[in-house]
Write a structure and sequence with these properties.
This protein is α/β, with parallel strands linked by helices. The protein folds into 2 domains: 100 residues, no CATH class; 190 residues, von Willebrand factor, type A domain (Rossmann fold, 3-Layer(aba) Sandwich), CATH 3.40.50.410. Helix content is 29%, strand content 24%. The chain is built from 8 helices and 16 strands. The protein has a 6-stranded mixed beta sheet with strand order 8-7-6-9-10-11, with helices on both faces.
Length: 368
């Protein structure tokens, strides 16, 4: 099971491969006939009286070892906001500083354009708590779509014991909304959120665009094949931001109203896990208690994605196969601290959201 764009890429790759193979065959045939490709048959005759020219012998092989290094390019999507959540727009390349394992880097690519959103909505849809989380995920997800534009791409997945692709990537938002409306009866009691996240990030690896995951879940995992540590390790290597909307607080509030003494420890742990998923991937996590908070949350999700700054650099030591920590900071053009003022001229604190690191490849090839 995969996304449409991944399938399309495979089809076009096959067509391109066939085209290149045919071209290679024609060139080889032309060479055997003594013809120049795309030229007259037989080629141009040599000048009369010209001495026979023998091809120069190939140069002798050089002794020693040759090393080829392919330097990776690291891309980082960053969002900057004030302490109150107001987006900082209009920043330039010189307003950013990136360190890679503490070493300052030279930013070679910068883009602040408004590109389409490519998002997978991942919803917990299990029978846990008599379907409480499934019903709230359905109800809240509908508030996302007024914040999407026609050019945006969205897909829908649900999970209980298994992850299901309900709607592949489409620009028809009504198709996704109708699929949500027709989710009637949750299946299994399990809630395998770790597996769902890892399966989704794996499917998104080859999908182009400003891709992201919107997760609506309690965050409690019951039966995943992957452990929490394995999930953290995989997500640390991902460049896909995860935006989490936790369903736990509204549930524990409802239990308290009915006099339940249900322990909140599991939900507090789940909140911490969702926050970590978001922070390590450059996303954000919300834990609403009231329905009235939902429209504002999804408006923030769309705004974050539309106002990301795309930064890229070639790390000074990026071929060691190790995990590298990234830190993105805001600076003034002269390299000093950046000062942000509100409308009244008062200084504002700010926050930068970006993924925390990446797994460097081993890109050194050695040959004789």
């Amino acid at each position: 099971m995969g996304f449409t764009r991944v399938r399309n890429r495979a089809i076009w790759a096959g067509i391109l491969s066939a085209t290149l193979s045919a071209t290679g065959f024609l060139l080889a045939t032309a060479s055997l006939r003594g013809q120049e490709p795309n030229g007259p048959q037989g080629g141009a005759p040599p000048p009369q009286g010209a001495p026979d020219q023998k091809p120069a012998p190939p140069p002798p092989p050089q002794a020693g070892v040759s090393i080829s290094v392919e330097a990776p390019i690291v891309t980082v999507d960053a969002v900057a906001t004030t302490q109150h959540g107001d987006l900082l727009m209009g920043l330039k390349k010189e307003n950013f500083r990136i360190t890679d394992d503490g070493v300052p880097q030279t930013i070679t690519g910068f883009n602040a354009g408004d590109s389409p959103i490519t998002m997978v909505v991942v919803m917990e849809f299990s029978s846990r708590a008599y379907g409480f989380f499934a019903s709230y995920a359905k109800y809240w997800a509908d508030a996302l779509f007024p914040n999407l534009q026609q050019r945006d791409w969205v897909a829908l997945e649900t999970f209980d014991m298994k992850t299901r692709l309900e709607v592949d990537f489409t620009q028809d938002k009504n198709e996704v909304r109708n699929a949500i409306y027709h989710l009637y009866f949750p299946g299994f009691h399990e809630s395998n959120v770790f597996d769902a996240l890892l399966e989704t990030t794996d499917r998104l690896k080859d999908v182009k665009g400003k891709k992201s995951i919107l997760l609506l879940a309690s965050g409690i995992d019951t039966f995943s094949k992957h452990t929490l540590d394995q999930t953290y390790k995989e997500l640390r290597q991902s460049d896909i931001p995860i935006f989490c909307v936790g369903l736990g607080k509204v549930f524990t509030n409802a239990m308290e109203l009915h006099g339940s003494n249900r322990s909140e420890i599991n939900f507090l742990q789940a909140e911490n896990e969702l926050r970590t998923f978001s922070s390590m991937t450059g996303g954000f996590a919300w834990f609403p208690q009231f329905d009235g908070e939902i429209p504002g949350i999804f408006q923030q999700v769309a705004s974050f994605l539309r106002h990301q700054y795309n930064l890229s650099y070639t790390p000074t030591n990026g071929n060691d196969g190790k995990y590298h920590k990234i830190k993105v900071e805001l600076v003034a053009p002269d390299g000093g601290p950046l000062t942000v003022l509100d409308q009244k001229g008062k200084k504002q604190k700010y926050v930068v959201y970006a993924r925390e690191g990446y797994q460097a490849p081993k890109g050194v090839g050695v040959g004789d």
